[in-house]
Specification:
By secondary structure, the protein is α/β, with parallel strands linked by helices. Helix content is 38%, strand content 16%. The chain is built from 14 helices and 15 strands. The strands form four sheets. The protein has a five-stranded parallel β-sheet with strand order 13-12-11-14-15, sandwiched between helices. Strands 1-6-5-4 form a four-stranded mixed β-sheet. It has a four-stranded antiparallel β-sheet with strand order 8-9-7-10. A hairpin with a 2-residue loop joins β5 and β6. The longest helix is centred in the C-terminal third of the chain and has 17 residues.
């Protein structure tokens, strides 16, 4: 819901999580209805004893409940329940002043089978995601979708927050219609913090950003790129124009491109290291060059000593590079390897042999002989690794 509202430029001012208490629901709805343009509720409209949202809604507007004939008709004809004593009929009992909105199904262009309920500026939806998402999509497209959009800029800074806090406080006061956020980061080679600058007006956002730059030394800012995967060939070629060991990088790309003549037989070792991120990025470049439709495939050998947030990192890589990642959790959990007809496993480690790399980290794994292990970074130095990664701002979890 928040993602859709953000896309159409609507500011979410408050999110409340409240108990199944009629009085509490009533007070929260009444207060929110008076303060905000739209109030959206989710949950508490089912057939059980704790579904009391409609009671709270009725109380908030001094109304009474009744069985809405259209909802009763839906229960009879859609759910096929004719017993009036069935608990299901509770979902047809809504405030008398409320109305039903069916909205259009985006796939069929026909009205949805089940409606959402509206009373003044309050919109009531079920809590179950399968029903909520369909119903809310209708409200979003019919009522809330506008041409207004948020304009957001990110500024990356390579000093601690306290060194730019005064400048940030000044620009916050000078631009009251602009929202600012400051976020320190740890274990990042590229920057120590980033600031978000956001408004519903492009000119305001740009002016606020420029003013923030003026209030700080120019050398603290980093021209960081969150999307190295987009226009990757152009960015890669720009990198090659300015590097001293161009042939090293070109040889690795060519080697990987040869493997991807049969993309269905190639796996990439994913372990959170910067070298692993480099292999993924180089494979993405090759995929873009070769124009094949197969998704890049990776394998993650899950171990207890890995960082707790490694799963989040892998999800980020999946989203960025459109990967399929196969997780191997036990020594015998090798179905993915067995199903790939002796696949090639691409690993990344500078200045180290394939065998040392794989055996030192995954020696508990069975059937390694079913893999053709290849290290396209074998001739890279550590300096080569960081020159490439830093120039393209590749993300990683472990600097191993």
């Amino acid at each position: 819901m928040c993602n859709l509202l953000y896309k159409c430029g609507i500011k979410v001012k408050k999110i409340s999580v409240i108990s199944d208490d009629v009085e509490e629901i009533s007070e929260e709805i009444k207060d929110a209805s008076n303060k905000y343009t739209y109030v959206i509720t989710s949950g508490g409209i089912g057939p059980t004893h704790d579904d009391v949202t409609y009671k709270g809604l009725a109380k908030a507007f001094n109304d009474k409940l009744h069985y809405h004939p259209k909802l009763v008709d839906i229960i009879k004809n859609y759910f096929g329940i004719n017993d009036a004593l069935s608990p299901v009929y509770k979902i047809a009992q809504i405030p008398q002043k409320a109305s039903l909105k069916f909205g259009l199904n985006t796939n069929t262009s026909k009205p949805n089978i089940y409606p959402y309920v509206v009373l003044e500026n309050v919109y009531v939806f079920p809590g179950s995601p399968v029903f909520l998402e369909k119903s809310f999509q209708s409200l979003y497209e019919e009522l809330l979708s506008t041409n207004q959009r948020f304009v957001k800029e990110e500024v990356f800074i390579n000093v601690r927050e306290d060194l730019f806090a005064n400048a940030l406080s000044t620009v916050v006061q000078e631009f009251p219609n602009v929202s600012f956020g400051s976020y320190p980061v740890s274990n990042c080679r590229y920057f120590k913090a980033f600031v978000t600058i956001e408004s519903d007006n492009e000119n305001d956002t740009k002016k606020a950003k420029q003013r923030f730059y003026e209030l700080n030394p120019a050398n603290i800012f980093v021209n960081f790129d969150r999307t190295p995967h987009i226009e990757c060939i152009i960015k890669y070629n720009n990198f090659l124009q300015n590097c001293l060991r161009r042939s090293i990088y070109e040889q690795s790309v060519e080697k990987i491109r040869q493997f991807y003549q049969n993309p269905e037989r190639v796996l990439i070792l994913i372990d959170g290291s910067i070298e692993s991120s480099i292999i993924i990025h180089l494979a993405h470049i090759c995929k873009t060059q070769l124009h094949f439709n197969n998704k890049l495939q990776g394998v993650y050998f899950k171990k207890k000593e890995m960082p707790d947030d490694i799963d989040e990192f892998i999800k980020e890589m999946i989203d960025k590079y459109d990967l399929i990642v196969h997780t191997v959790e036990t020594a015998t959990d090798n179905k993915i390897i067995q199903s790939h007809l002796r696949p090639t496993l691409l690993i990344g480690k500078a200045e180290e042999s394939d065998e040392t790399r794989i055996n030192s980290n995954y020696n508990s794994m069975d059937n390694l002989d079913q893999l053709q292990i290849n290290n396209p970074l074998r001739n890279w130095t550590k300096k080569d690794v960081w020159t490439f990664a830093s120039s393209l701002y590749l993300t990683y979890k472990l600097a191993v």
